[in-house]
Write a structure and sequence with these properties.
globular; 6 helices; mainly beta
Length: 310
């Protein structure tokens, strides 16, 4: 890993800069009185160019969905699992069933039903050893494991469940970065701003962001748990031109290619009010690459847990 910095811990993580914007009470309607500099002008926070379409997805027995993103213009693949409880995530446990690191083909072959056609762009990553097991070999094995009794309405980012569900499931065996029980206001995270369409000002209510970047690596595994806490004292809503708008906490995944940051098309994830969203992802490439994620528009008392491994 090359030329990486960390604001608080000496790990391969880059925390991007801090800035603030003026806010109003969330119960008030927005009035445009002045123009301020938007976050899109700040390096690292501007919108990334969309590229790399969704190839296919698989629904698992736990109800989570595993998405595969890739394109012919870039050697890497993003495999992303989206679910609602930390112990329900399949990617977190799949690697523990294999003695070797798994690429996109290995993951698709292990989780897809027998007889399902492998998309050509994923098939290109097939290795000789990949076919030693029958298609769908991991489905029955994973169904034997206990996914716990988490209920979305009762538990959000439970530490024991969150940590135990990744044992043996990360790129290097154990995560090299763990950050639990993040409350944006208490943690004093960098401030963020949702710029209201056409108005050029920040939406009412202080918002925060959490950003991380790995450089010069071929694989990156991570797991993120977010709860959007919606209360009168922690609302994500604001009025605009007579309409009540909910601006959700949003996760973006990016990779660097041909001199620009790109986001796989449609890969960002939003968190509904008073819901928990668990996201497990793997970037897998054949060449050293730069990756980052941006968790944006958090309010004061939202909840976040994250683990990462290179």
């Amino acid at each position: 890993m090359k030329h990486l910095k960390l604001k608080a811990l000496a790990l391969g993580l880059v925390m991007l800069g801090v800035w603030s914007c003026e806010t109003e009470e969330a119960t008030q309607e927005v009035e445009v009185q002045e123009t301020i500099e938007l976050e899109d002008n700040i390096e690292g926070l501007k919108e990334d160019e969309e590229e790399m379409p969704l190839i296919t997805k698989i629904k698992t027995y736990t109800g989570s969905e595993v998405y595969f993103y890739g394109s012919k213009d870039y050697s890497g693949k993003l495999v992303l699992e989206d679910g609602e409880c930390s112990s329900c995530m399949v990617l977190s446990r799949l690697s523990s069933l294999s003695e070797e690191k798994m690429n996109a083909f290995d993951i698709f072959w292990a989780l897809s039903e027998p007889g399902v056609e492998v998309p050509e762009i994923i098939l290109q990553e097939k290795k000789e050893k990949s076919l030693f097991q029958k298609q769908g070999w991991a489905r029955s094995e994973l169904e034997k494991t206990n996914i716990g009794n988490e209920k979305l309405a009762e538990i959000a980012c439970n530490n024991n469940s969150f940590k135990s569900s990744i044992n043996g499931g990360f790129v290097g065996g154990k995560p090299d970065f763990i950050d639990l029980d993040i409350i944006p206001k208490w943690r004093n995270l960098p401030k963020d701003c949702y710029s209201i369409p056409l108005n050029g000002v920040c939406a009412p209510g202080q918002r925060y962001r959490y950003t991380a970047q790995y450089n010069g690596i071929k694989s990156w595994g991570a797991k993120l748990c977010i709860k959007s806490v919606e209360t009168p004292q922690n609302t994500h809503k604001f009025w605009l031109n007579g309409r009540l708008i909910y601006k959700a906490p949003t996760v973006y995944f990016s990779y660097y290619n041909r001199g620009k940051w790109h986001v796989p098309s449609g890969s960002w994830r939003e968190v509904a009010a008073n819901h928990t969203r668990v996201i497990d992802w793997r970037w897998i490439t054949s060449i050293n690459s730069n990756f980052r994620f941006k968790l944006r528009y958090l309010r004061d008392f939202d909840q976040v847990d994250i683990m990462m491994d290179k």
